[in-house]
Amino acid sequence: MFDARVRQLIDPSLDRAGTVLARLGLGANAVTVGGFLFGVGAWVALSVEAYPAALGLIAANRVADGLDGAVARRLGSTDLGGYLDIVLDFFFYAGVPFFFAVGRSEVALPAAFLVFSFVGTGSSFLAFAAVAAKRGISTGARGRKAIYYLGGLTEGAETIGLFVLICLLPDHFAVFAWVFGGLCWVTTATRVAAAVGTFRAGSVAVGVISSTTVPGPGAASDRRTTDTQVIS
Q1: 3-226 has which fold?
Q2: In 3D, which of 33, 28, 32 has the Cα closest to residue 75?
């Protein structure tokens, strides 16, 4: 919900840092993998209930996630880079509740529900991106991305907010997991509705896509630009 606004605030600083890293010869894929290793460290910290350490490592993972894109904008993006970015992000997100439950087995059920909910948001997100790519639909609402980023109630910013809360208030993990998991299913429902409205008739559903170029009704080269609002 807040990702587009957050990107506007943090992108200038990330771009400056990305320029420095690119000049030092650090590639975007190296930043992506390094960030994922921070995430693995966060998993370990969660599993032993070292929550302050987990919080710091989660923050490092997210900073790296922003920096890899900034480096790619300087050195040139690649399909492999886009693939690694999204796959390792999804691994990281799913691992946080799982390894929290490794440390506290009494919250296994809400942790499982949260991972289950992530499957809903993730699959609806990726399936939309795949069909959007086939149809030539694109958006710049969240910056230049390797795939289409469809918005929703629970996006990256909200998920990181959840991870911060469970590190600061671990005794309330179950409540956070049930509530956020429920909100994830609202997101999944809106994404499915967006897909039905967008792909069924081959047109763009109002309230779904922002700053989007979509194929026109004629030849593949016939395109029009539609500015509507991202789901929130």
Answers
A1: Four Helix Bundle (Hemerythrin (Met), subunit A) (1.20.120)
A2: 28
Contact predicate 176/190, CB 8 Å: no
Whether 207 has a pLDDT exceeding 70, the answer reads no
Q: Residue ranges per domain, the chain?
A: 3-226
* Choice among 67-71, 108-112, 202-206 with the minimum mean pLDDT: 202-206
Query: Beta strand pairing status for 138-139 and 223-226?
Result: unpaired
CA–CA dist 51, 184 (Å, integer): 24
User: Structure pTM?
Assistant: 0.75
Task: Report which DSSP code applies to 143.
Answer: B
Joined together, the tokens standing for residue 40 give 């693995």
Characterise 202 by phi-psi region: left (phi > 0), alpha (psi -120 to 50), beta (else). Answer: left
Q: What is the mean pLDDT of residues 200-215?
A: 45
Cα–Cα distance for residue pair 53/9, rounded to 1 Å: 26
Q: Please state, rounded to an integer, the average pLDDT across all residues of the chain.
A: 80
Token pair recorded at residue 229: 């609002």
Report whether 151 contacts 4 (CB < 8 A): yes
**What angle (nearest 5°) sits at the alpha carbon of residue 191, between those of residues 15 and 159?**
50
State the amino acid at position 168 in one-letter form.
L
**117, pLDDT greater than 70:** yes
